[in-house]
Amino acid sequence: MKNIKWSKTTRKNFLTYGLVILAYVVMQILGGAGLVSSSLKGMLVPICAYVVMAVSLNLTVGVMGELSLGHAGFMSVGAFCGTSTAIILQDSISSAPLRLAISLVVAAIFAAIAGFLIGIPVLRLRGDYLAIVTLAFGEIIKSVFNNLYLGVDSRGLHISLLSDRTNLGEGGKLIIGGPMGIGGIQKISTFTAGFVLIIITLVVVFNLVNSRAGRAIMAIRDNRIAAESVGVNVTKYKMMAFVISASLAGAAGALFAMNYSTFVANKFDFNTSILVLVFVVLGGQGNMLGSIIAAAALTILPEALREYADYRMLVYAIILILVMLATNNPKLKSWMDRLKSSHKKVKEVA
Amino acid sequence: MSPKLVPIPSKNMIPERDIDKPPVLECINLGITFGGLKAVEDLNLAIGKTEIVGLIGPNGAGKTTVFNLLTKVYQPTSGAILLNGQDTHNMDTIHINRAGIARTFQNIRLFSNLTVEENVKIGMDSQMHYNMFSGLFRLPGYWKEEKATHQKALELLSIFNMADLANARAGSLPYGAQRRLEIVRALATNPCLLLLDEPAAGMNPSETAELMENIRKIRDTFQIAILLIEHDMNLVMNICEGICVLNFGKVIAKGTPEEIQANPAVIEAYLGKKREA
Lengths: 350, 277
Known about the structure:
The complex is a heterodimer of chains A (about 350) and B (about 280). With about 350 residues, chain A is mostly helical. Chain A has 13 helices and three strands; from the N terminus they run αααααβββαααααααα. In chain A, strands 2-1-3 form a three-stranded antiparallel sheet. The longest helix of chain A is centred in the N-terminal third of the chain and has 27 residues, at about 95-120. The two termini of chain A are about 25 Å apart. In chain A, α10 packs across α11 (about 290-305). Chain B is an alpha/beta fold and about 280 residues long. Chain B folds into two domains: about 1-100 and about 190-275, Rossmann fold (3-Layer(aba) Sandwich); about 110-190, no CATH class. Chain B has ten helices and ten strands. Chain B starts with about 25 loop residues before the first strand and ends in a 6-residue tail after the last helix. The model of chain B is unreliable at about 1-10 (pLDDT under 50). The interface of A and B includes residues 213, 223 and 227 of A.
């Protein structure tokens, strides 16, 4: 079979992979040539983390069709668990990339567990109610990490809540210090690691969507009653989407955290959840490429607007409103459709 | 507490070719009450292995409620449903479908953002076995089963002349084709009993004629039983071998189309009582 006809979704998926790889190569070449400003260089890892966040939230919002307002909570779980793992392994594993990889996997696993536990009550709900409850769980996770103390010494790990009662022995180290967060992190996150994480995320999400599980998840989104009537296990598939979404967010959180020397739980609050939701809505629900572009653009934008000083966030908001209005303009949409169809006709003629 | 099973009084409705085989579905004193309202009461019905049965009655008689009971959208408050002789009181909607009852809906419920082929494939989901990880990493099991499912879906669609629509979005199909797709999706679950809820609603006479052909074709090709709710009496009288008439949740008549047409209780339910002279 030489003449394989790729379906529309397959073509779009390969376009997404291609553009991400292209962006990575271009940044590497520009970086090598010394053409990347230091402020942009510092933003590369956060951009990667936000891209993964946006794509994973798009799995919940766009593919599963449920609004989640607590996505930063899973990012937080990943950030704390991943960074703690990296600090614990600091002496035993000297290779930084390996340590980072292990930390990201641990972060993803812990976030998946959190996603599963939170999913049990949350996925019984639908629509607005589900959104509100995820918001509450996001805040609960933030409060837990604000009051969590984790230390390590020769006798092993010590955990306490509310106040520091870890009673570390000689040479012990406090890893998580409650509201002080985690300090003294080795910055081992790199742009390459972020790029690899994005590719893994895309592979997971695209392959999931194009398998029986993805079909079933979208069927439940389109019509839950009909999905049940043809024997689709609604609970199982919703949980699957939610847990995968949470675990990817966890990995993104760990990547994000290990780009800084210190961070606190308050970093992953309601605002972060909303920010990621803005990426998803702006990029288009169910549209992964759109999420990637929106996440990258909206992370760079505040920095790019630095010359407006005090009016920075005002300009940011106005740009956001204008883009939302423009992308939802029916006239613009029909014009784009006409452009697409005429393009197709030209192709067919040729 | 399992209800006491009583002999089925409706055996006389089953056509002769099915009389020796056990019925695919038996309802025994089936009933449901919502608060004080008895929506369905003492329904006794047996359906033969390859029988086409019509369920008719005036609006609000409880016909769709019967469908919802059979598919366990509602749990019956009294009586029992036996599917191939097996009690179904502990099954939910999903298990009922896997046990062999598939249905369509009065108001079309397709997965409208997915393609026609995907709609049919979702019907086959419970017959597929590869797990999430085979899907995520595209292991051989994924390719093998996806290919087989693709072929089976196209085969099923071509029986109903829809193979060329396989890649169209289900929501963009014309009304008649959407109704047909719902039936194909239900058949994809490999049922032994198909429930059709007003399949001819909103169709013109030529579409209805085609539907009648299709219903016969389904029975002959798949050798399954069909229970249908319909207001189009032309369709019901033409293709049904047995008819059950419901009014205010109670069965008022059962029998062949000829018997039903002559039954004074049915005429009264539909047209009202003749005024005394």
